[in-house]
Every structure is written in C-alpha cells, then in structure tokens.
Queue: 2 jobs
Job 1
Amino acid sequence: MFINATTAGKHDEQRAKSTAAGNLLGDGDHFRFGPTIFSNYAVLPKIGSGDLSKRSSSSAFSILPLGIFGGLDESSLSAYMLAPINSDRYICLDAGTIRYGLKAVLQNDESRRLFPGVQPGDEDQVLQQNIKAYLISHGHLDHTAGMIHNSPNDLRANGSNPSKSIYGIKETIDVIRDHLFNGKAWPNMGNAAPESNPETFQIKTYKYEVLKPNTFPQLIDQTNMKVTVYKLRHVFPVLSSAFLVEQSESSSTAPAILYLGDTGSDEYEYEDKDKTQKSTYMKTLWKQIAEKMMSKAIDLRAVFIEVSYMNSQPTNLLFGHLTPKLLAVELDILRTKLGGGNERLLDNVIIIPTHQKPDKNLITIREEIQKELSLKKYKFYFPQQGAVFYV
Ligand SMILES: [Zn+2]
Ligand SMILES: [Zn+2]
C-alpha cells in the first residue's frame, strides 16, 4: 500500500476520504508516474492516492522533511523535523540539509501554517526558535553537514539561553567533536575539547548529550518528547543508531516513531574486520520494539528506515545499507517478534523508506518496494522535501 506525498492545497477531495489513520489509501494501491517534480532532474513516481498531508483527529506528530536523500544532492540530505501535534518545539532527526529544507518548508502553504507569522525568508527564525535539539544517527556528512553549515546562525535567541543539545551514541558524538566541530574542519561550536585540538575555544552553541543504548527513555531538552537509542551496524567499524521518540506527556500508551539511521542487515554486516562474527543489532532492535508495542508502552505511528540500493546491488557492495528485499526481511522479523495475533499492531504503522540517491535508480528502488510481495501488507509513504505530513 502506498501513500502519496502531495503538495499542500491539492487533493482536497482525497483528503476528505482520508479521515482516520486507518483509511489513508483513497482509491487503492495505484502506482503511476506523475508530475511530482521537486528538483531539476528527479521526476518521482506518485504512488497511491492516500494523503498524510492533512492532519486528522488521530494525528500524533507533525513531520517536516528538510532533506530526504542519502547522498549526491547536497540540497536534500537526510533531515526530518518532528514535533508532537500542536507543539512548535521540534527535534531534528539527522541534519544533512537544513537551510534548503527550511526554504522549501516556508514556500509550502500547508507547512508554513505551522509557524504563524513566519514568512519565506525567515528560515533563521525557524532554525533558531523551533529546532530545539538535534538527534544524529551517525557522523557521516550526509547526516551532519546541514547542522555544521548553519551553526554560525543557529544562535540562541538571546545570550542567556542554554546551548542546544546534540544527542547521539558515544561513537557519533566522538566523530562530531573530534572530526567536525574540532576547530580545524570547522570552528568548535560544541562544549567539549576535541582529542586533537584540546586548546580550541569552545563556542558552546551546542552541548553534547551522549545517549546510552537500550536504556530507559531520556527526556529531550526543551521538548515534550523522550528518546531511547539503539545501536545499528552501518558497515564495520562504523556504528549508526536508531531513535525511538515518544511523546513524554502521555498518561498511558505514548505515541511514538522509530527513526533508523543508515544500517545494514544482520545477514551481511559483521562485528569484526575478519568477518567472523555477524551483527545482531537489528534483531535486538526489533525484539525491543515488539516488546514495547505488545506491552502497550508505545503506540508506534511510523518507522523511518533506509532503503539505499536496488535489489540488484551485489551483497558484497552493500556498504552497510538495505535494499527493498532486505527491508522486507527486516519488517518480517518485527512481525515475527510480535507474533500471536499482535501483527495487527503493524496495520496502521506508516513505513517511510529513506536515504535513496536521486539518480537513475531512484524510481527503480521505489518500484521494487512496491513489487515486493511481502511488503504489500504495509503502508508506505515517500516524503517530499518541505511538505509536512502527519502520523
Ligand atoms: Zn547516509
Ligand atoms: Zn552513513
């Protein structure tokens, strides 16, 4: 099942049909190439006719994609603003592209409505006032470059405000501190000394918050959300991570989204360079998510998961990424962990494939996702830069 990323202001008729989270598909699982052009070279398929661009009474989060690709196009690299519905206190999940994404947000009527009084050109205002913290999955540039480039303007509203937090596992924070904000590649905007340059002046626009994997959810500074982090194996020795973000003010089952940074599958990733020990991070992740779903600790609304390559990518050249077939394997593992009739808990979870490259393979990857038999039971949504959607 496929849900369309539509431009605000269109498809009102379809919206009228889409009144609840469980009824998002409009006229069915239709796949066609359409006029959704969001860059000079990429004509993306319009898929299905459901519409998440209109909030419904069951919407729990607003999501603003600032960048959606996994490389090549520096104007649209992984970055997603997320806030509980009715809140203007967002986190940014990865930060590959910030400014170009904010421009797209402020040129989109539906998205701009989230920021009353803000006009196109006021990107700095949203950057400074509405992005309250960054959650970075790993240190690769396609997940960090937007934050780095915009850091000089990511000023606190006034000098007495606290630094903004950058959350990540230790390995991610180490890369940002030692290799990005290290006073050499870029000024030290953080609050810690890089290993190679201990005397560098700390500008402290940001403060580093190391998250311990698999522990209790931690409140996210200046927001109404909390986060649990899980390790992922990108490609040895690079560790990546997944964030489970929950609303922190729910009295019972907390609406939540799961965001995976770059990851390979346990089948093809290893924990040592000699490839003797296979990774187990994905199995661990799905087990823990399934347990939280079954115990009603969370009401999972969406899973952001990377699908970087086509199925034809040789398995020795995956570089710690997934294909449509491997996505199907992963979702089946989650389904199996749920088991015993609990599979229905996945019925309304929106699967958001991320991190494709905007090249000739883009449409093929999306077609392959659509054709994969065991994926037909899921609802997919392909985000569009700048276009708000609700889950
Ligand atoms: Zn990446
Ligand atoms: Zn990466």
Job 2
Amino acid sequence: MTTDPTGAPHRIAVVAAELALTGARVDAVRADLTTPDGLQALVEAVHAVGRPVDVLVLNAGVANGGAFLDTPLEDDLAVVALDVVAPVHLAKRLVPPMVERGGGRVLVTWSVAATMPGPYYATYAAAKAFGLSFAQALRHELRRTGVTVTALLPGPTDTAFFAAGRMQGTRLARGPKDDPARVARDAGAGARRTRHPRGTPACARTRGTGPAR
Ligand SMILES: NC(=O)c1ccc[n+]([C@@H]2O[C@H](COP(=O)([O-])OP(=O)(O)OC[C@H]3O[C@@H](n4cnc5c(N)ncnc54)[C@H](OP(=O)(O)O)[C@@H]3O)[C@@H](O)[C@H]2O)c1
C-alpha cells in the first residue's frame, strides 16, 4: 500500500481499498503526472493490466491562484504540465488503441473557467480553455470511430482544489460550491449520454465563476 510521508495510507490507497469492497479489481498507481517519468509509469501500469481501456477519465488538475506578476514561474509551469501536457500525452498514448478496438469513452474534466478570461488564476483558466478546445476537436475527429469524448465543466465544487491552488481566501473559494458526489454523478451520466454523430459534447455545467479573488 502506498503511504504518505507520515506513514499513513495515501488517499489513493484508501479509495482503492473502498472500491475493491464492491468486488471490482482495483489497481492503484501513484505517479506525478507533471513529469515524463510519471506519465510513462501510468501508461505502463495501464498496459500491465492486460485489458483494453473502455473508459478513460482525465481528471487530475491543479490551479495556481494569485496575480500573474506574483506567482512563481515553477507553479505556473506546473499547472501547464498537469492541466495541458499530461492530458495531451495520455490521450495520445491511450486513445489510439480504443479507436483500433472501435469503441470507448473519454471523459475529461476541464472547468467552467475554460469559457471566460480568468484573472488571478490566469494559467489555470487558460489551461482549461486549451483543454476544452482540444476535447471539442478530438470529439469531431473521432466521430466515426465509436469513441466518444465528453468534457465536464464544473463550477466551484467542494473539494481540496482551493487549498491545493492556494485560493482559500478568495471570493470564489468562500462562495457556494457544488457537492463533488453530485458533480461526479452528472459527469458519469453525461459521458454515458454522449452519442455520435449529433449533439454537442455533454457538459455538466454547474455554478458560474469569475475572477479568482
Ligand atoms: N473543485 C473545483 O471547484 C473545480 C472546478 C472546476 C474544475 N475542477 C477540476 O476538477 C479536477 C479535479 O479537481 P478536484 O476539484 O477534485 O480537486 P482536488 O481534490 O485537489 O483533486 C485534484 C486531483 O488531481 C491530482 N493531482 C494533483 N497533482 C497531481 C500530480 N502532479 N500528478 C498526478 N495527480 C495529481 C490529485 O491527486 P492527489 O490526491 O494524489 O494529490 C487529485 O486526485 C481538476 O482537473 C480541476 O481542475 C475543479
């Protein structure tokens, strides 16, 4: 079991153990997806399962709150690495076998921030805008392959996101938030509903957002 620096089981190990109680096989992998090694480790772990990917969920993401003039460059680049480079890398490596098999579903978590300028989390909103455009284009390209692409655009949701992005004090973080379980259910339902060739990518839009301060 993977552990955190204190020796306690890491969150992913705890969740994997809970899911395994349903009788499903669960393989938990910890990988830093901001690094080429982490991306490679995850792709190898997927291949090691020895079964095709039916549903690919690209969900990992971080924000980086603050004025662009103040945020450390390494934090800005980490947002780009996790929210832009990693999903492109994983889609490039894992979607082609789904197309070869002629079926599957791709669900990507972007954000309602993708649809508007994002002052005070500029790199995050720009990264999500990239992702939404990428998903819409990929969906079109895959329209005759049997592989669907669904973009989830949550509004503020009650997770560790705001703390992880150092945005706890912001108006956005203090405002109303959606229940993550409900957002996850909407996402699953949206991905199941997505059909080709008609319709727009299913988006579970929740609350609106705005400048992150
Ligand atoms: N919460 C919101 O208000 C909101 C709104 C719109 C969109 N979103 C998007 O929703 C997605 C999920 O975020 P969340 O709200 O559930 O926040 P969260 O609780 O902070 O979860 C972030 C997830 O990303 C993973 N992650 C962070 N850094 C990583 C790294 N370097 N390598 C691999 N995985 C990493 C985390 O894994 P660990 O637990 O191992 O750190 C965690 O599973 C993100 O893409 C986020 O941008 C969130």
